């Protein structure tokens, strides 16, 4: 078992599901003295934390609340002796519209509150402690949707673009305090948020939807393997650990190559067109 987070106290927001849950598990096995799983979902969070191990605790937290985020940082400091790693990972998507023309923007404010304000509050409140105690590592989850333009979920895309830009600015501002700020851009990762399932869906319906989504997601991904929350958690562990002590203001993209470039192979089409032209 690796011990690279030995002696460190870490907070993972959105820790009760998907990427956050995988990070909580990985940080706990990497020897963190305490991992605080912070999530709005108190119903499952408490039990999940208890099941992972003695070095994991749950704190019900809405990251868009200044009071709740401050209470979270205070718990790390007062109950566990400090805060070395802050993984601001909680995020929500907005409703998927075929066209921006149809978007009623009803969920714009909540999306911004959770995805942008939540990350900014988490960064600031963690950094205020870290600045006075030798520094630390802050990791913010954005998305390939914030780095690359495309269809649908416009509020979500805008919120994640804001996370990317803010995090680089914070990296510059906070470096003088030995605080590193880095970003992870997940691509298509099979989680609850990415399932697009309706609450009224049967199990059979969910399974069919999931397999169709897998096919859609793999169509623009050079690596033909579905990304997992654990793939993203590995990037978070690297950024949390001292292995990345010289690294700040960067973005680690975990997307199987989706954003590396156009993965439609035009070469064969060009060769076929050349062959047809040669016959004329
Ligand atoms: N899954 C993907 O394909 C994908 C792609 C790009 C980016 N992301 C980002 O990764 C992060 C994690 O998403 P996921 O896919 O694991 O989703 P998920 O839905 O499985 O987990 C998100 C967790 O965040 C919690 N949460 C929601 N609002 C919160 C709030 N206000 N305060 C505290 N916790 C809150 C939820 O209860 C949930 O437990 C998000 O920021 C998301 O935008 C995911």
Task: Explain what the structure shows.
The chain has 280 residues and is an alpha/beta fold. Helices cover 46% and strands 14% of the residues. The chain is built from 9 helices and 7 strands; from the N terminus they run E-H-E-H-E-H-E-H-E-H-H-E-H-H-E-H. A 7-stranded parallel β-sheet has the order 3-2-1-4-5-6-7, with helices on both faces. Helix 1 crosses helix 8 (229-240) and helix 4 packs parallel to helix 6 (154-174). Bound molecules: nicotinamide-adenine-dinucleotide. It comes from Mangrovimicrobium sediminis.
Provide a quick synopsis of the model.
Keywords: Lipid metabolism, NAD, Oxidoreductase, Steroid metabolism. This protein is α/β, with parallel strands linked by helices and 280 residues long.
Helices, strands, pairings?
Elements: E1 9-13, H1 18-29, E2 34-39, H2 42-52, E3 56-60, H3 66-80, E4 85-88, H4 108-131, E5 136-141, H5 144-147, H6 154-174, E6 179-186, H7 203-219, H8 229-240, E7 251-254, H9 267-278
Parallel strand pairs: 1-2, 1-4, 2-3, 4-5, 5-6, 6-7
Bound molecules: nicotinamide-adenine-dinucleotide.
Keywords: Lipid metabolism, NAD, Oxidoreductase, Steroid metabolism
GO molecular function: oxidoreductase activity
Protein name: SDR family oxidoreductase
User: What proportion of the residues is helical, as a percent range?
Assistant: 40-55%
User: Radius of gyration in whole Å, from Cα?
Assistant: 20 Å
SS elements, strand count: 7
CATH topology: Rossmann fold
Quick check: average pLDDT?
Answer: 96
Task: Write out the CATH superfamily name.
Answer: NAD(P)-binding Rossmann-like Domain
What is the element string, with H for helices and E for strands?
A: EHEHEHEHEHHEHHEH
Number of domains: 1
The CATH architecture designation is: 3-Layer(aba) Sandwich
Which hetero compounds are present in the coordinates?
nicotinamide-adenine-dinucleotide
* Tally of alpha and pi helices: 9
Helix and strand composition category: alpha/beta
Beta-strand content bin: 5-15%
Side-by-side strand order of the widest sheet: 3-2-1-4-5-6-7
Described by the principal axes of the CA atoms, the overall outline is globular
Report on the biggest sheet.
7 strands, parallel
The unreliable regions are: none
State the separation between the terminal residues, measured CA to CA: 66 Å
GO biological process, one term: steroid metabolic process
Family: Belongs to the short-chain dehydrogenases/reductases (SDR) family.
GO molecular function: oxidoreductase activity
Pfam family, one: adh_short_C2
């Amino acid at each position: 078992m690796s011990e690279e987070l030995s002696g460190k106290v870490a907070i993972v927001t959105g820790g009760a599901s998907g990427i956050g849950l995988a990070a909580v598990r990985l940080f706990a096995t990497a020897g963190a003295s305490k991992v605080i799983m912070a999530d709005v979902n108190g119903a499952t969070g408490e039990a999940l934390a208890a099941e992972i191990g003695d070095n994991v605790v749950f704190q019900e937290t809405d990251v868009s609340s200044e009071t709740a985020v401050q209470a979270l940082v205070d718990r790390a400091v007062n109950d566990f002796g400090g805060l070395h790693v802050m993984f601001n990972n909680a995020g929500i998507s907005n409703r998927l519209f075929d066209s921006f023309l149809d978007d009623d923007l009803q969920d714009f404010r909540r999306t911004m509150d959770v995805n942008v304000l939540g990350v900014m509050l988490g960064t600031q409140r963690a950094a205020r402690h870290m600045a006075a105690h030798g520094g630390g590592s802050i990791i913010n989850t954005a998305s390939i949707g914030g780095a690359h333009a495309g269809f649908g979920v416009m509020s979500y895309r805008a919120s994640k673009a804001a996370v990317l830009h803010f995090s680089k600015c914070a990296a510059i501002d906070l470096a003088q305090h030995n605080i590193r700020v880095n970003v992870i851009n997940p691509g298509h990762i099979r989680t609850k948020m990415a399932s697009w399932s309706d609450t009224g869906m049967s199990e059979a319906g969910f399974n069919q939807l999931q397999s169709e989504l897998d096919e859609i997601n793999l169509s623009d991904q050079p690596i033909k393997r579905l990304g997992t929350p654990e793939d993203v958690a590995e990037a978070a562990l690297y950024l949390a650990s001292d292995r990345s002590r010289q690294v700040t203001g960067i973005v680690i993209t975990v997307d199987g190559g989706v954003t590396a470039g156009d993965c439609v192979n035009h070469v064969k089409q060009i060769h076929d067109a050349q062959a047809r032209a040669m016959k004329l």
